[in-house]
Write a structure and sequence with these properties.
Blueprint lengths: L2 H7 L9 H5 L6 H9 L3 H8 L4 H7 L6 H4 L11 H11 L15 E5 L3 H12 L3 E5 L6 H4 L8 H12 L4 E3 L5 H10 L2 E4 L5 E2 L11 E2 H7 L6 E4 L3 H13 L3 E5 L10 H9 L3 E4 L1 E8 L5 E10 L5 E12 L1 E4 L3 E2 L18 E3 L2 E3 L9 H19 L3
Helix pairs in contact: 3-4, 3-7, 4-7, 5-7, 8-15, 12-13, 13-14
Amino acid sequence: MTEQTQAQLMRCLQCKNPGCSAACPLGNDIPTIVRLVREGKFVMAVQVVGHPFGGVCGYVCPHENQCQGGCVLAKRGQAVPTGEAEAAAFTNSPYVVARRDDKLAGRRVAVVGGGVSGITFAVKCYESGADVTVYESNMLLSTLYGIPEFRLPHRLLDDIVRSVEQSDIRVEHKYVCQADIAAMQNDNDIVYLAVGRTVCRALGVTGEEYATTADKFLHEAMLPRDVIVVGGGNTAMDCARLNARLGGKTMIAYRRAMADMPCYAKEVQAAADDGVMFETNLAPVMVDKQADGRLSVTFARTNSEGRGRLSVTDELHTFSCDCLVVAAGNMLDGNVYAQDKTVPVDKCGNVDGNLYAGGDCAGGSLVVEAVKAAICACNGVFERYATK
């Protein structure tokens, strides 16, 4: 932990009715976490957080809209950097997955999806004595590993994966479809569906086959190129900033106005600081591959009214690039669940019978929302299945 972070955390007033905790989606005891971190008691701080992804939340949560936004000092523009406290705690003391009680002793749990929500659910059930198997077609936390290192240190993810692998949680790398889920419900006491939105949303334009997906680009980019990124979310910013930091010329093309971008405002500023150029109110209409291998991308000028109706004009603009990255949102795999829908759940994450769901597939989009969904589902499971 840096001296600057330490000094910032010393400003925490330790409020009796902390607005930071009230603004945290998980209701974390943030004053206690801050106090423990500034005292160097990192192990205890991690225990107060109580789940493996506190460090990740410390780096990628929109703190200004959550805990830091609720800080009493935020009114003076001097909110305590509570996210840095969590990041410091988990950097210095990784979460340890271990048996803690026997509430679910003898219960068999199957988790479909090895992302944030799936791993959180698996860990909490395992800690309560359950026999847990995670089914993941890719590597664990593959989506988080796609976030560039400069925004999320991958050593935090390595720590989580290592802790899971050192426990008795089984991980099976296999693709799971709807029929498999039905069979799992028969073979297990509890099934938790936590699949991510892994299918890139198509642009629906001629020549789209020449483009690459954001996920592929983030995992494979190593050399600077002349890149156009289509999209306005945090993933689009990650792609653009990664290429810019590699030294490549980078442009973001977004179909609405700059103010309507769904990404965090701080990410737009960070991308601009990295040298990313922005072209707004442009929608792609055609992609063509030139003789030299470069791509010619034609956009139409749009008229937009906030996040509402969008109309396309006849005004066309053409740009050339080495690589076109599509970061226009993802859908669920239709072989697992309906692509354009979310899995319906109740307040405890229950879908039906012994099937529960959380994370992206149930409508969550933030890391903290994925964690919250898993914890809510665990609480429902404990109430229903706990050994009496």
